[in-house]
Write a structure and sequence with these properties.
Blueprint: H1 3-8, H2 11-14, H3 35-43, H4 50-69, H5 72-88, H6 99-117, H7 140-158, H8 162-173, H9 178-185, H10 189-207
Length: 222
């Protein structure tokens, strides 16, 4: 990494955890500086132009890493790592494909590497039923039930084989299309659909012994 990048736009320095500040806006690139032009500028040595790509994709990559790894510290580090890897290997990017797919694939691979290094049985995947509508006031018992459901789901998801777990995270938590996941992973759409169906079946089986979990599963739209 060049000194200029380190001083001007190093992803490691520029990124801050969304947990410690307001979430960044996902802003479009300038009309006069379409994404391909920005990429060309970076390739030509304009390291400051890379900041536009960081701004555009930071929030999405952080969300993916957080879903995959389950804590903000790992998500922060892996998001920065993904941007750094992308910068250092930009010459290998094929402009016939989407930059977004390419950098998401880099982030996904970084998450896979991190998860492989974690001790077996350590819960990592964050499955959250999501917030209730603001007009709904939840009772203490209801809040406790939701917390217990979330814990049960996290545990059950973590027990799935990695390929089924990952398919559920990408399809249902990140809400990515099968086509987008296929581009990221290199797997066929058909294979991914099979994994999601089998993963859901395995997840439901894991939850059969948890009181009320199956009846509440609609909350996560799996």
């Amino acid at each position: 990494m060049t000194a200029a990048l380190a001083q001007q736009s190093s992803p490691s320095r520029r990124l801050q955890s969304p947990s410690r500040r307001a979430a960044p806006r996902l802003v479009p690139l300038d009309a006069d500086a379409a994404e391909e032009r920005v990429l060309q500028a970076v390739r030509a040595g304009d390291s400051a132009a890379y900041a536009q790509l960081v701004e555009r994709y930071q929030r999405g990559l952080f969300s993916l890493c957080l879903r995959m790894c389950g804590n903000t510290a790992d998500a922060d580090e892996l998001t920065q790592e993904a941007f750094l890897r992308a910068y250092l290997h930009l010459s290998s990017f094929d402009s016939r494909h989407k930059f977004s797919t390419w950098i998401y694939r880099i982030a996904l691979n970084a998450c896979r590497d991190r998860l492989r290094s974690k001790p077996h049985g350590e819960s990592t995947y964050g499955l959250d039923p999501g917030p209730l509508p603001t007009e709904v006031r939840e009772s203490p018992d209801g809040a406790m039930a939701r917390t217990e459901l979330r814990q049960a789901l996290n545990t059950a998801l973590d027990l799935l084989p990695a390929k089924y777990r990952e398919a559920l995270v990408l399809r249902h938590l990140e809400d990515l299309s099968y086509e987008a996941i296929s581009e990221m992973t290199g797997d066929t759409v058909g294979a991914l659909k099979v994994r999601v169906v089998r993963g859901r079946t395995m997840l439901l089986e894991q939850l059969r012994n948890v009181d009320g979990a199956l009846a509440s599963l609609d909350a996560v739209d799996l």
